[in-house]
Amino acid sequence: MPIALVILAAGKGTRMKSDLPKVLHQIGQAPMLAHAVQSGATLEPERTVIVAGHGADAVALAAGEIDETAQVVIQSEQLGTAHAVDQARAALEGFAGDVVVLYGDTPFVQPETLERMLTARAQNDVVILGFHAADPARYGRLVMAGDQLDRIVEYKDATEEERAISFCNSGLLACDAQTLFDLIAQVGNDNASGEYYLTDVVELARARGLSVTAVACDEAETMGINSRADLAGAEAVFQARARAELLEAGITLIAPDTVHLAFDTVIGRDTLIEPNVVFGPGVTVESGVTIRAFSHLEGCHVSRGAVVGPYARLRPGAELAEDVRIGNFVEIKNAEIAEGAKVNHLSYIGDASIGAGSNIGAGTITCNYDGVMKHRTKIGRGAFIGSNTMLVAPVTVGDGAMTGSGSVITKDVEAEALALARARQENKPGQARKLFALLKARKEKRNQEAG
Length: 451
Ligand code: UD1
Ligand code: MG
Prior knowledge:
By secondary structure, the chain is of the alpha/beta class. The chain has nine helices and 35 strands. The longest helix is centred in the middle third of the chain and has 21 residues, at 228-248. It starts with a strand and ends with a helix.
């Protein structure tokens, strides 16, 4: 059965108190909308329609990055969830199959749950996803009649008796597209909110003699995000899940609660992650790597056997080959570090390539920026860069070359050459003794004057 996803994301999210549309707030460093699209993607949808409203331009831009095939439709006035789904009508013209409605602010619905909804769909015309709420609060209540769902009553419209029901509506729904749009056309707005409720399709379907059921899922999956506190709670849920998945996959986290992961972090088995490591987006780490404490990684790749940190920073475009060593207070950006090379202390390597087995001394800086443009530094294989070398790019250091400590290298160094670019040392015999005596006398005099 072909599937089309309709993801509702037009709401304002007033309680976020933000200029950013709610669905673009991030969890695991991806917009919550991306999480909703990702869980829906497991159904291999033929079409994905995102209904945007508040901040529609920003949502459309983000939607293009999340899934370039997604269509974005605009709901210019938020007249209710049925009205929102109705905005997808034209985008789904000619589509024959099931529509699955998701919410952009409900990011944690599990793929298995969506599968269960579709399984139930095989026997029913309409399937609603429900959950048993610990605190049903203001959720819509599911009024069951045996194994059929009789109707959904919104909290505002419910009687005391209906409010006592704890089986609640998550908002997710699956239904044949044609049937759904026919039913939506009949939905009115004569209710406590004056809105077009998607939940009304249940009663309308039943009136037509169609079968409607509700599938239950874990309450944690339907967690909606309405405030910054909810967002922080959702982040905690995401992190807990992501850490558990890594542990399950054979990665050692010494202090899992202190490791922060992104939505797309990939780590190979037998890698060891020490405490307080942060992963930004776009990081892949192979097997048998050690990431030591307090390191920060984003947009980078770390190959087998490498050791990174403690206190290392790998920025976008850092590509570490096998057995590379990156030590404390070292920043690497847009640079390839070839097999077995070492950058162990207090260095900045940006817009550079470093050949296999080269050793970069403490305090080495690639001066990659001239105030206007960025330039590259190339270092060959087996080179030795002396401590505190400034490499003023664009510059090339050949295979097996050396630079003397403290050099400011502005010209290319050919293979196997030694480059010295610093003032020549001069020793003055006895001069230190004289200078000490002079300084001590001055201090004595000053103390006497002060009484
Ligand atoms: C809705 C359900 C309720 C359910 C609850 C679960 C209805 C009438 N009620 O209520 O039964 O328990 O969700 O969280 O469906 N949206 C639009 N356009 C609109 C209105 C809403 O895109 O015109 C989007 C929102 O951005 C949000 C979702 O639809 O993602 C739900 O809207 P919301 O206003 O939060 O509905 P609730 O009142 O919470
Ligand atoms: Mg809501």
